[in-house]
Design brief:
The chain has 306 residues and is α+β, with helices and mostly antiparallel strands. It folds into two domains: 13-69 and 105-148, Beta Barrel (Elongation Factor Tu (Ef-tu), domain 3), CATH 2.40.30.70; 160-303, Nucleotidyltransferase, domain 5 (2-Layer Sandwich), CATH 3.30.420.10. Helix content is 23%, strand content 33%. It has seven helices and 14 strands. The strands form three sheets. A six-stranded antiparallel beta barrel has the order 1-2-8-7-3-9. Strand 4 (77-79) and strand 5 form a beta hairpin. Helix 4 (204-217) packs parallel to helix 6. The radius of gyration is 24 Å and the shape is elongated. The chain starts with a helix and ends with a helix. The model has no long low-confidence stretch (mean pLDDT 86). Its cofactor is Mg(2+). It catalyses: Endonucleolytic cleavage to 5'-phosphomonoester. This is Ribonuclease H. One of its GO terms (cellular component) is cytoplasm.
Length: 306
């Protein structure tokens, strides 16, 4: 029979199997959640555990379990001898949170596995300091680990991700090719931000893409963005064509090189840092924000060609 009291008093020790490597060298520059495709992160597994990586590369995502060696336990607020933390004016039990300060400072992240070379596991971004000890690695298995009925519990949507920001974009070109302008309008709460630009020799499609790229650059990463555009080229490219282009080595379905590949690659990389919703706006239909970016894009051409 199991002696529960003896088990409860048991001292548990872990041995590090490796270390997390990245550019996060202080607690202030670690994101709240890892960016899905940030570069420069890898797991350095101790040589004696290298054989344990066999077949891991067949999985797309993995769990990384690590020891939060610099977490400060004194941040915990002990209310009535129960571990609680203050969160948005609420007293939340530490086990109902993902705070790093815990009775046992263990962290868990799901990351994308990029490739494995010997004892180095290259991964997408992870929310841990450079040099953080790794306790274990496990494969993420879609049919076992993905639960469609999962919910947010007490966590408000804005705590997971910024409130949805609206991004209106448009591009214009005189002559096509010829001088062109682009404009983006960011609406967040009651604040509006305008981004606009000009190029002396370009096309309408390149200006449409530039508007989206430059607009996203002004929005904080890990943000939910509603992209509103009247450009079928931009919206269909992002929603329907992009994945096929990449699989074919940036070739179209007719095996031709993708036009504006440089901008599509930049937009593809940038869009991975956001949760994007795409909305088709009918051009010149009275939508005041769409009309505004249309006018601003054309204005850039006029101002630079006097």
């Amino acid at each position: 029979m199991i002696n529960i009291e003896k088990v409860m008093k048991m001292e548990i020790n872990f041995t590090s199997v490796g270390y997390i490597r990245n550019n996060y060298n202080n607690l202030n520059n670690i994101p709240g959640q890892p960016y899905s495709d940030e570069e420069g992160h890898y797991l350095e597994i101790n040589k004696e555990y290298q054989s344990g990586l066999k077949e891991l590369s067949r999985f797309k995502y993995i769990y990384v379990i690590f020891y939060l060696h610099k977490a400060a336990k004194e941040k915990l607020n002990d209310i009535d001898h129960k571990f609680r933390i203050k969160k948005e004016g609420q007293d939340i039990g530490v086990f109902a949170s993902r705070e790093p300060s815990r009775p046992n400072n263990i962290g868990l992240s799901i990351v994308r596995l990029i490739r494995i070379k010997e004892n180095i596991v290259y991964i997408s971004g992870i929310d841990a300091l450079n040099g953080t000890p790794i306790i274990d690695i496990k494969p993420y298995i879609v049919k076992l680990d993905n639960h469609e009925d999962a919910n947010k519990g007490w966590i408000k949507e804005e705590l997971i991700m910024d409130k949805k920001i609206e991004l209106y974009t448009d591009g214009a070109c005189s002559g096509n090719p010829g001088p062109g302008g682009y404009a983006a309008l960011i609406i967040k709460d009651n604040e509006e931000i305008i981004i606009k630009g000009y190029q002396p020799e370009t096309t309408n499609n390149r200006m449409e893409l530039m508007a989206v790229i430059e607009g996203l650059k002004e929005i904080n990463k890990n943000t939910s963005v509603r992209l509103l555009s009247d450009s079928n080229y931009v919206l269909q490219g992002l929603e329907e064509w992009l994945e096929g282009w990449k699989k074919r080595g940036w070739k179209t379905a007719s095996n031709r090189p993708v036009k504006n590949k440089d901008l599509w690659m930049e937009l593809d990389n940038l869009s991975k840092y956001y949760e994007l919703e795409f909305v088709k706006v009918k051009g010149h239909s009275g939508n005041k924000y769409n009309e505004r970016v249309d006018s601003l894009a054309k204005e850039q051409i006029e101002l630079n060609n006097k």
